[in-house]
Description:
By secondary structure, the protein is α+β, with helices and mostly antiparallel strands. It has helices at 2-24, 62-74, 81-85, 202-216, 241-249, 335-344, 349-361, and strands at residues 26-27, 32-34, 40-49, 92-101, 110-117, 128-135, 141-148, 150-151, 154-157, 162-165, 170-179, 192-197, 221-223, 228-232, 252-253, 260-264, 269-272, 277-278, 281-285, 288-299, 310-321, 325-329, 365-366, 368-371.
Amino acid sequence: MKFRSCITGLILLSYLLLLCSQAQATRIKDLADIEGVRDNQLMGYGLVIGLSGTGDDIKKSVFTKQAIINMIKRLGMAIPAEVFKQMKTKNAATVMVTAQLPAFSRPGSSLDIQVSSIGDASSLSGGTLLMTPLKGPDGATYAVAQGPLAVGGIAFGGKTAKVQKNFPTSGRVSGGAIVERAVGYALPAGGELLYQLRQTDFTTSSRMTDAINSHFGSGTAHSMDSRSVKVQKPANYQGDLVTFISDLESIEIDPDRVARIVVNERTGTIVMGQDVRISTVAVSHGNLNLVITETTEVSQPNPLAAGTTVATTKTTIDSIEDKGNLVVLQMGVNIGEIARALNAIGATPRDLIAIFQAIKAAGALQGELVVL
């Protein structure tokens, strides 16, 4: 009975360890991309109409006025030049339209677009984007965009007050662009694929190679460097490269992580990885607060007495220095112990940033400190 209990305990422990290892594993498709299979950036210059007096001031935004004139001429309307000089509309705005063209996109498929004002329009809410060609870096048109904008911000106000939420000068059109030309790319006919890791790391590259060879057989994958892994399609997948890629990218591995602390001094945000370690170091923390108070004292004569009123300013400065605390961080402590030790001395996020910078300068931080 005791032997059975031991066997049951070992099985349960193995199962829990397996669950933990699976929870930390990541699919290859979330770590690496096939070389050449990527998005392409598109950009275009367009005109948004239908704004309720919140568009560009065409007296100041000359390019908006010219865009309206060009649009009217393309529609075959002949309007005298004097009419254009008297134009005062504020219901239109010039915008830049951007989009991402995914790999293997075919003509007729739709794209989401981002529309951003480049003039002095106060809001694009309620506007409609007119037909706008989207071009790539080579100058060729790959998509055409048009449609009503969805703006996630509002702005209302008058001459003395204004209320604004988010950014009303930028919006999106879901499925607002139609692909007109495909990017010429095809998967290699020979079946040799080159995967590029999104985060350069020798250990992750080696683990990825071992996992692929363990799944498909020895010699299937080869690590070229810390970022590139070359994969050869096995013989039993001949004629079915898509299935091979699907099976390969579903393989899970445990990527290696860099010991890193990222701090943002503007917002006081601190993000620490679990592999960060600190050598034995003593940290002292204390705040000095200066409180400066100014009061105005007025001295004036009695009623019906001669003299003038005199106002004097009195300045009071109080200095308050908190009691300094000294905490010793032992070598090899983990992230949880670091957080508890620094919280114990009452350090705020901005204090922690200064403390980590000082620990790094002392050579006791075993990891990378990134300051944004």
